[in-house]
C-alpha cells in the first residue's frame, strides 16, 4: 500500500521554523520554543516542541513553567532580587486526559484533531493514510504536525494540550522572563528550554494583511494577499465576504487557512479560491489574520468584483486568403454554428510577422452573419488572424495565416556589398545593404576565384540576415576570392547578381622581433640600444614602456620606415623607479611581433631632506645610549645608516636600520634607537644619514659626542 505522510508546518517563521529541520535533530536533544502576549486578563504563553521527539517527551513527562521578575515599577531589579523573585508557576503541565476531551469537543470541533493527535491509536486526516506499524516515524510526524495545528487555532485547545498557559498573577508594568522546560528529560539528554521576555501592558498591534487582490472568473474568484509582511504575527487567516458592501459579513472559509508550500520554495503570497453564487453579482472580500493565541487581527481593506462568464471555447478559423483580381485580398472565415448566437462581431488583424504585433484593419466591428472581408490595400507578405468578441466582451483570436500576393517581378539585388577577414583570419564575413523590395525573403551567396569566372553558390538555403560568414582555413593557393549576392522574394523570384566584392588574403607571417643589445642606467635617464627587425615588409617600430604599477604599456616613440633608430635615451623616468621596455615591430599586413622585455632603473644621486633634532640621551645606569632624530618623509626611507666612532678613531658604519627593525622605533617623523653595546669610560661620537628608496640620500646629520660616559 502506498504510504503518504502529511505534515502541516504551523507557526512558520513565528515559533516552529526549525520544524523543517526535524530529520536533522539529534535524538538526544530536546528543544522548545516559547512566545508570549500581554492580554487584559494576563500574559498568555504559548510553547511548542521543535521536533517529534520533544513532542513525545512533553506528553510523557510534562512541562515546568517558571517566571523571573526582571523589573517592576521602581526600575530594573538586581540579579539577587531577580533570583529571589523567581517563581514556579506550574509543575507537571500535562495534556487533559483522554476522557476530558469529549466535553471540549462538544463546543469546539478542533478538539477532535487535538485529542486524536494525542491519544488515537490510528491517526489519519481525510484521504492521507499513515502506515503506523511499518512507518512509525511518519506517523509521529503526522500527529506532531496536526497537534501543533490544533493548538494554533484556539488558546483553549493549546492549554488543554499542555502547550499554553495564562499568567493571571502578572502585574501591570512589570517585566518578566518566562522559562518552559521538560520536567524530566531522558538520561544523557540535552534540553534547550524555551524562554521569552515580556512586560505586562505592552501590547502588540495586530496589523491588517495587505495587497489584497482578486481575479474574478466564471462564478469564481481567486484571492491573493501578501503574507510576508505579517508572517511574524499570524499563523492562519480567515476570508470574510459580503454581498451588501459590508453591512452583512459571512465567513468564506470554515477552517483557518494556513501557509503550505513545496519544499525549497517560499512564495510571499497567500491564495484562496471562492465560489460565487452567480455571475454579475457584486461581492466584497477582506482578510483577517489569526495569531497563535487565537486572536483575530484587524481586517484588510475591502476589494470588490463580480463573476464573469467564461470566454467561448471556440476560435474563428480563416478558411481562405484569395487575390480578388483587383489588387485586394479576400479573407473568409468560419465559426461553429452553435457559437454564432453568442458572438457580437469580428475584427480582422494583420501583422508583417507571425509573432506580431497585430492590428485591426477594419474600422468597425464586423457583425453577424458576415464571414468575409476584403483588404483593399494588402502588403506583399502579411499574417492575418480573425478575432471574435463574444456577448460578454471576451476577445478570442484564431491562429495566424500567411498571405502572399501574386508576384512574378524579381527583387532588386542588394547594394554596397563589402567584406573582410575576421580576427584570426580563419573566416570571412560578407555584408550588404538589404534589397529595397518589401517582399524580399532572403539572399543567396556566390563565390569565385576570379572576378569574371563562373560563380558557385555557397548557400543551400536563403540567408535572412544581411551578413554571411564562411571558413577560409584551406586557402594556401589562393590570394583572393570574389563574392556576389542574389536576393530572393517569397514567391521564389531571384534578382540579378550584385556587384562583386574582392577579399584579398594578406601575409599571415608576423615580422621577426627586434632584439635589445643593452640597457644602461644613469642619473640623466635610461639608455637603450637594439637591433631592428629584419623582416623585409617591416613598416613601423614602436618603443613601449611600463612601470611596476600600471598593467598597460605606454608608447614612448614610434619610427616609420625608413627612419628607424637603434638607440634611445628615456629621460622621462622617475628616479629609483623600475621601468620595463619592449619594442613592437609592425609589418605591412598589420601583424606584430614584440621583443623580449628588459628592465632598467634611473639612478638617483641626489640629496633629499635633512636629519634634524638629532640628540642623545644617556641612561642612568650608563648601560645604553638612546639616539633620537627626525626626518620629514619617513615613507621614502629605505633605511637609516648609523655611524659611530670611539676616542680619536674616524667615524665608521655601525648599523643599517630598516624601518621595520625591532631596534628602531618610528612615530610620525620621529625615529629613536637605543645603543646597547657600549662600554664604560669611553667617548662616543654618532652621526645618522637616511638612505632613500629612490637611491638617494639625506644630508648627513651633525656629529654628536658623548663624553665621560
Compile the SSE list and pairings.
Layout: E1 29-39, E2 42-49, H1 52-61, E3 63-72, E4 75-76, H2 79-84, E5 87-93, H3 101-105, H4 110-119, H5 136-153, H6 155-160, E6 164-167, E7 175-182, E8 190-192, E9 194-199, E10 210-216, E11 220-226, E12 236-242, E13 250-251, E14 269-275, E15 283-290, E16 303-305, E17 317-323, E18 329-334, E19 343-351, E20 359-360, E21 372-375, E22 381-390, E23 395-397, E24 401-404, E25 415-421, E26 427-433, E27 440-448, E28 456-457, E29 467-471, E30 480-489, E31 501-504, E32 515-522, E33 525-531, E34 538-547, E35 554-560, E36 567-570, E37 578-587, E38 592-594, E39 598-601, E40 607-610, E41 612-618, E42 625-630, E43 637-646, E44 652-657, E45 664-667, E46 670-675, E47 684-692, E48 697-699, E49 704-706
Overview of the molecule:
There is one protein chain. By secondary structure, the chain is mainly beta. It has six domains: about 15-200, no CATH class; about 210-305, Immunoglobulins (Immunoglobulin-like, Sandwich); about 315-405, Immunoglobulin-like (Sandwich), CATH 2.60.40.10; about 415-505, Immunoglobulins (Immunoglobulin-like), CATH 2.60.40; about 515-600, Immunoglobulin-like, CATH 2.60.40.10; about 605-705, Immunoglobulin-like, CATH 2.60.40. About 10% of the residues lie in helices and about 40% in strands. Strand 19 and strand 20 form a beta hairpin. Helix 4 packs antiparallel against helix 5.
Amino acid at each position: 500500500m502506498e504510504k503518504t505522510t502529511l505534515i502541516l508546518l504551523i507557526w512558520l517563521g513565528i515559533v516552529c521554523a526549525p520544524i523543517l529541520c526535524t530529520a536533522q535533530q539529534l535524538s538526544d536533544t530536546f528543544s522548545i520554543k516559547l512566545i508570549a502576549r500581554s492580554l487584559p486578563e494576563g500574559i498568555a504563553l504559548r510553547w511548542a516542541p521543535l521536533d517529534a521527539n520533544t513532542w513525545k517527551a512533553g506528553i510523557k513527562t510534562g512541562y515546568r513553567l517558571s517566571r523571573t521578575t526582571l523589573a517592576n515599577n521602581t526600575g530594573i531589579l538586581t540579579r539577587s532580587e531577580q533570583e529571589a523573585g523567581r517563581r514556579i508557576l506550574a509543575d507537571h503541565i500535562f495534556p487533559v486526559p483522554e476522557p476530558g476531551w469529549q466535553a471540549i469537543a462538544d463546543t469546539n470541533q478542533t478538539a477532535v484533531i487535538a485529542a486524536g493527535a494525542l491519544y488515537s491509536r490510528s491517526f489519519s486526516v481525510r484521504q492521507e493514510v499513515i502506515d503506523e506499524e511499518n512507518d512509525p516515524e511518519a506517523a509521529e510526524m503526522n500527529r506532531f504536525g496536526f497537534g501543533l495545528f490544533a493548538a494554533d487555532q484556539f488558546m483553549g485547545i493549546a492549554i488543554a494540550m499542555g502547550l499554553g498557559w495564562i499568567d493571571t498573577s502578572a502585574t501591570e508594568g512589570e517585566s518578566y522572563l518566562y522559562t518552559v522546560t521538560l520536567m524530566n528529560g531522558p538520561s544523557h539528554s540535552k534540553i534547550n528550554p524555551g524562554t521569552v521576555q515580556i512586560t505586562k501592558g505592552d501590547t502588540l498591534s495586530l496589523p491588517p494583511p495587505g495587497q489584497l487582490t482578486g481575479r474574478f472568473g466564471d462564478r469564481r474568484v481567486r484571492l491573493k494577499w501578501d503574507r510576508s509582511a505579517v508572517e511574524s504575527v499570524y499563523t492562519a487567516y480567515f476570508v470574510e465576504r459580503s454581498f451588501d458592501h459590508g453591512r452583512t459579513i459571512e465567513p468564506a472559509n470554515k477552517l483557518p487557512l494556513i501557509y503550505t508550500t513545496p519544499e525549497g520554495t517560499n512564495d510571499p503570497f497567500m491564495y484562496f479560491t471562492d465560489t460565487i453564487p452567480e455571475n454579475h453579482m457584486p461581492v466584497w472580500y477582506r482578510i483577517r489574520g489569526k495569531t497563535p493565541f487565537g486572536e483575530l487581527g484587524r481586517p484588510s481593506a475591502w476589494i470588490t468584483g463580480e463573476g464573469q462568464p467564461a470566454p467561448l471555447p471556440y476560435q474563428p478559423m480563416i478558411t481562405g486568403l484569395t487575390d480578388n483580381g483587383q489588387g485586394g485580398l479576400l479573407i473568409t472565415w468560419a465559426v461553429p454554428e452553435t457559437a454564432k448566437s453568442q458572438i457580437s462581431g469580428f475584427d480582422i488583424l494583420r501583422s508583417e510577422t507571425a509573432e506580431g504585433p497585430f492590428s485591426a484593419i477594419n474600422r468597425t466591428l464586423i457583425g453577424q452573419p458576415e464571414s468575409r472581408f476584403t483588404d483593399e490595400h494588402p502588403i506583399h507578405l502579411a499574417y492575418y488572424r480573425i478575432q471574435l468578441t463574444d456577448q460578454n466582451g471576451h476577445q478570442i483570436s484564431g491562429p495566424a495565416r500567411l498571405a502572399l500576393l501574386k508576384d512574378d517581378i524579381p527583387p532588386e539585388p542588394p547594394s554596397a556589398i563589402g567584406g573582410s577577414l575576421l580576427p584570426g583570419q580563419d573566416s570571412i564575413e560578407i555584408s550588404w545593404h538589404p534589397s529595397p523590395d518589401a517582399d524580399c525573403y532572403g539572399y543567396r551567396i556566390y563565390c569565385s576565384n576570379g572576378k569574371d569566372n563562373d560563380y558557385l553558390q555557397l548557400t543551400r538555403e536563403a540567408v535572412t540576415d544581411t551578413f554571411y560568414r564562411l571558413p577560409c582555413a584551406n586557402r594556401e593557393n589562393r590570394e583572393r576570392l570574389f563574392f556576389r549576392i542574389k536576393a530572393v522574394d517569397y514567391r521564389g523570384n531571384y534578382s540579378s547578381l550584385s556587384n562583386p566584392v574582392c577579399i584579398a588574403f594578406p601575409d599571415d607571417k608576423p615580422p621577426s622581433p627586434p632584439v635589445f643589445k643593452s640597457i644602461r642606467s644613469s642619473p640623466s635617464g635610461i639608455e637603450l640600444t637594439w637591433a631592428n627587425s629584419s623582416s623585409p615588409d617591416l613598416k613601423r617600430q614602436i618603443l613601449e614602456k611600463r612601470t611596476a604599477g600600471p598593467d598597460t604599456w605606454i608608447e614612448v616613440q614610434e619610427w616609420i620606415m625608413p627612419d628607424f633608430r637603434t638607440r634611445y635615451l628615456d629621460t622621462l623616468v622617475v628616479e629609483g623607479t623600475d621601468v620595463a621596455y619592449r619594442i613592437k615591430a609592425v609589418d605591412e599586413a598589420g601583424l606584430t611581433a614584440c621583443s623580449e622585455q628588459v628592465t632598467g632603473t634611473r639612478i638617483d644621486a641626489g640629496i633629499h631632506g635633512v636629519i634634524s633634532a638629532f640628540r642623545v640621551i644617556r641612561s642612568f645606569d650608563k648601560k645604553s645610549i638612546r639616539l633620537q632624530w627626525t626626518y620629514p618623509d619617513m615613507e621614502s626611507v629605505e633605511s637609516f645608516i648609523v655611524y659611530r666612532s670611539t676616542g680619536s678613531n674616524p667615524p665608521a658604519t655601525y648599523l643599517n636600520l630598516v624601518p621595520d627593525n625591532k631596534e628602531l622605533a618610528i612615530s610620525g617623523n620621529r625615529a629613536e634607537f637605543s645603543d646597547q653595546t657600549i662600554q664604560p669610560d669611553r667617548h662616543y661620537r654618532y652621526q645618522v644619514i637616511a638612505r632613500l628608496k629612490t637611491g638617494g640620500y639625506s644630508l648627513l646629520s651633525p656629529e654628536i659626542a658623548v663624553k665621560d660616559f
